[in-house]
Amino acid sequence: MRSTQAEYTGTRPFFSDERFADAVGGVFVDVANPEELTGDDYEVQFSGNGEYWQLQNTSAGETVIDSVTYQGSSRDEWNFPIVDGLSVKVVNVPDSFKVAEAMIDESDTNAVVWLEGNGTQSLEGNPGGVYDAGINYVQYSTEARQFNPFPLDKANIFPVKVVFDTSASDQSLGQQFLSSWRKPVFVDELQPTPVTAYDMTDPDNPRQLYIAYTAAGVQPAPLNFPLSGQKFVVFDAPYQNTARYGEVASQDSLFRKEAYLVFDLARTADTLALANRMEIEITPHFPNSDVDTYAFQTQNLFPDLSQQEKESLLDKMKVVPNPYFAFSKYETSFDTPVLKFTHMNEEATIRIFNLAGQLVKTIRKNNNLNEVTWDLRNEAGLKVASGMYIAHVEVPGVGEKILKFAVVQREERIDQF
């Protein structure tokens, strides 16, 4: 059984990035019935924030499968739909993180990982957090969901690196909020913070991101990670040194739109805590989304036949429908009659004669399709007369076959006169 992996043709860069090879979904195609293959090109598209998918025959401009919700976790599953002789296997990954790794300078024997998760950033019924449940999407955080209850936009998920460096002489700035994300403190002023966050979509050109954090009281207070933990949010917004949000988090539409990751981290009790630079690299999964598409061709999925199989195929060749009586089920319009020669080898020549022995039409085939259509017109493009016809089929290196069939043309209709 032949199979292929569809090519990713969407707009997200992660699907061609080796860093995320096992963090993305995919589309795999297996041949279920070679005789039903069309040889056409296809594309899988998504909608509804990646919840639904459809299969387009791009060669014919037709939707052949629509609004399918099932997406497997592996191509080895068996309940995928079958159409046009193909089993189309749409594989997805969970709406959660792949991993969050703490990084320190291994050459510094005194360096330690001095931040741990506080274990609160999860929401029952949704994917749990990562880094001991100290990091999560805002939408999946028990506390933070109050200011962003909207579904996670799967098309805008990206990896993040957060750097913690208390010794940096030029620290980044963060916006301070009262506890529980009430009104921001000193709206026009940001506070120095040992935290810097980056969008790592392009690791060669990371985008620094805006952050905000909570602290008790109404006076300026640093983000210093007490043992009890301190929360901060990384936003899908570029870093700036002026305040970006001016309202209570749950009422600030810009805050709600841009809030991305929430952190609830606590300093360990180690005496070396805060002494060295450390990083946390957060790698998400990238579930299927509305900007993802996959394309594949079926010309190369036709099986390679042995000589015996080619001869057997020639023996099975027939004309359908026979007789052709005014119409066939293959027709899509009144003006285009369709008669088919089925079970065709890759290369063949069909010569069609009337009973007087006159050559009416020659059809040459040189493709992987297993059928050939005839529009019941002669070489001059005129409709053939009703009657009996003989087809002489020649398959190079295989043999020849004679087919007899009848044609009854439908009555002509004159719509204008």
Q: How does this model look, in words?
A:
By secondary structure, the protein is mainly β. The protein folds into 3 domains: 3-93 and 290-301, no CATH class; 97-284, no CATH class; 307-408, Immunoglobulin-like (Sandwich), CATH 2.60.40. Helices cover 4% and strands 39% of the residues. It contains 2 helices and 29 strands. Strands 9, 10, 11, 12, 13, 14, 15, 16, 17, 18, 19 and 20 form a 12-stranded mixed β-sheet that branches. A 5-stranded antiparallel β-sheet has the order 2-21-4-5-6, with no helix packed on it. A hairpin with a 4-residue loop joins strand 4 (41-47) and strand 5 (52-57). The longest helix has 10 residues, at 307-316. The protein is elongated, with a radius of gyration of 32 Å. The model has no long low-confidence stretch (mean pLDDT 89).
Would you kindly provide a brief summary of this structure?
With 417 residues, this protein is mainly beta.
Key features?
mainly beta, 39% strand, 417 residues, 29 strands, 3 domains, 2 helices, 4% helix, twelve-stranded mixed beta sheet
